[in-house]
Amino acid sequence: MCLGVPGKVLDVQGMTATVDFWGVQRQILLHVVDAPVAPGDYILNHVGFAIRRIPPEEVAATVALFEELLSAGKTDLMAGEVRAQVGEVDASDG
């Protein structure tokens, strides 16, 4: 399953953004994102690339959905996939 995880852009330097995912910061590439991004924007990240800038009117609903998935029971397959993606973020930061 392919999953894009939402995160908040903290800084942009050229084609790289520092993005916050539930308290974990990662460097994300901007080469394929569908629109320019700036600090304060939210993006969907997939394997280290921003694939979509989340329109401001969709941010609250998108983040709420992912928070709901993260808090879902252990038997929920989608919740498990989201936790795995966030877990990969944590593990790679060290």
What does this structure look like?
The chain is an alpha+beta fold and 94 residues long. The protein has a single domain, classed as SH3 type barrels (Roll). 34% of the residues lie in helices and 34% in strands. The chain has 2 helices and 5 strands. It has a 5-stranded antiparallel beta sheet. Helix 1 (56-71) crosses helix 2 (77-92). The chain is globular and about 40 Å long. The chain starts with a strand and ends with a helix. Residues 89-94 have low confidence and may be disordered.
Radius of gyration over C-alpha positions, nearest whole angstrom: 13 Å
What's the total number of strands?
A: 5
| SSE series | EEEEEHH
Q: From the 3D coordinates, which CATH architecture would you assign?
A: Roll
Beta content: 25-35%
- Mean pLDDT reading: 82
- Coarse structural class: alpha+beta
**Number of H/I helices:** 2
Level-1 CATH class name? Mainly Beta
Low-confidence stretches: 89-94
According to CATH, what is the topology?
A: SH3 type barrels
The level of helicity is 25-40%
What is the molecular shape? globular
Overall number of domains: 1
> Major beta sheet, specifics?
5 strands, antiparallel
Strands of the biggest beta sheet: in what spatial order?
A: 3-2-1-4-5
Distance between the termini: 25 Å
